[in-house]
Amino acid sequence: MAYLIDGSNFIGYSSPRSLRDPQAKYSLVSRLLIFQSLKKTRVLLVFDGTPDLNLIGETFQKKKFSVIFPPFGTNADETIKKIISKQTDLRRFFVVSSDREIKRFAKSKRATPLSSKEFNRELQTALKEHRKSLEIEKKVTSLSPLEINQWLKVFKDEK
Known about the structure:
single chain; about 160 residues; alpha/beta; Rossmann fold; five-stranded parallel β-sheet; 6 helices; 5 strands; about 50% helix; elongated
């Protein structure tokens, strides 16, 4: 299973004010890294514009997670179409975009188009489950016998 995400389109849907905020890309990447590890799936995230050197380093170029910027002179839509065209098995390949042309192209190649709204719902559900699992995993540490004795001495001495 793999998700090819039109990053700028998704940010524009999920928080329109964030399109101008450079931190919006980092926020999306961090949420998608959690999503990718939870779902054990491949994530290809394509952004429009000039490559952000902080997002194209080794941290964000892994076997199952990639941040992609289009080559000079092209845009994210062209890059997304090229990626779709190169895939050999599109049965479980999801293309996330609310751009009609991208969704139409994905469907014509037998990939599964997901609107930004649909994927946002899936992402929020996964992140909510992740937060719940972190709460469960919180360790409750109990005092050691030595610590208990020390505290008993402290309180005994106060009387």
